[in-house]
Request: fold
Amino acid sequence: MSFDLVIKGGTVATASDVFKADVGIKDGIITALGLGLTGAETIDATGKYVLPGGIDSHVHIAQPSGEGIVMADDFESGTLSGLFGGNTTLLPFCIQEKGKSLREALTAYHAKADGNCYTDVSFHLVISDPSESVLGQELPAAVADGYTSFKVFMTYQDLRLNDAEILQVMDTARRTGALAMVHCENEDAIRFLIDKHVAEGKLGPPSHASTRPLAVEREATHRAISLAEVVDVPVVIVHVSNGAAMEEIERARARGLNVTGETCPQYIRLTEQDLEGMNWEGAKQVCSPPPRTRAEWDNIWRGIQNGVFDVFSSDHCPFRYDDERGKLNPKGRTDFRHIPNGIPGVETRMPILFSEGVNQGRIDITRFVALTATNHAKTYGLYPNKGTIAVGSDADITLWDPEAETVIRHADLHDGSDYSPYEGLAVKGLPMTVILRGKVMIRDRELVGAKGDGGYLPRGLSMKVRPAA
Ligand code: URP
Ligand code: ZN
Ligand code: ZN
Reply:
């Protein structure tokens, strides 16, 4: 058998197995796993892990973000940053603006993405206006076209849906086989607390966290799961920040419900104290749900270890800090209500989990692969083309050096923001070489691929909805 590329002498890890093998690649596909393979080109992977390319199923890129506010990443910088973080596929959100159609949103978003990506991408939809035509025609048509997952929000005044609307959207998910994702925070409770904070003149960034306490997320998580139970549909609870919300997922699963849990690096590395700081520095870490206490880090680790969390995503949602169109916009620099929500992290997600998880002995390499690639592919209709190292799968491969060390500095990252929430954090274990569908994109941490090498992926149905035969 002839190969275009052979990755030789490495340790292959999948979500279930770890073994020594060469990987033979032909026409962008893995065509053999074996020993003694030879090909037109060879990459020596001695001492490296050979892992499926990372899939980050929760990122925000070039999203409309309110008047005067601009997201820090377009598809070029966002996917480049993702690539340097060891990812080969990103799943950003395409937001339906109120009063507009899904088609309009998709057309606009494709215009931004197509031809501009360094990784493969595929879009989730965000449903903000579940009109009769959206539920009856547009959404089913979008699902048939491969947009097989969508998110609904229980918070943010311009995006939130009420329970009746969420039930309708979930029912459409049930009819079409799509997968519903829910942002769980109780908007009315948040508004109540915001009014109190404002009346007391508490306008600094820490008020972002204290107006979104844990109970606000726990209640909404319970309600979202209950609504999904009423409709009898699987549901993904995204960006879970604390043990109490996580326990809602555990309890639901114990009752036999089909609930997928997602958590993110900010909930094992940041705390609400990070929203304090001189010169409005805390604005850098404003995201929703907010970071919690250190004690919650342990709870989240328990869920990462025991499987409550199926996916570990970045929720990369980058705004520049020192920028009129970012965190320090004219209103945002005096009032937490106007600080755009979200933090960058697509490039640091996997190094942080590898370092704190694998290298510090909290999880093994197979769990790392499951949490960063395989489970994303299974959950969002990309498996087995993506998310694993197997004959017939796309040759999306990252070579990891488990011993390589660095200190996270924004100056070394590739996103369009001007800071990293993890500045100064030492990490051990880095992606060295990244291969996308058989094409070497990064070689020994140097970019060799080009903008446009990443493509758009229509997706099948989630294995959570339709288990593999
Ligand atoms: O603060 C965050 N997480 N912003 C991104 C939007 C979202 O809710 O995922
Ligand atoms: Zn969200
Ligand atoms: Zn998000």
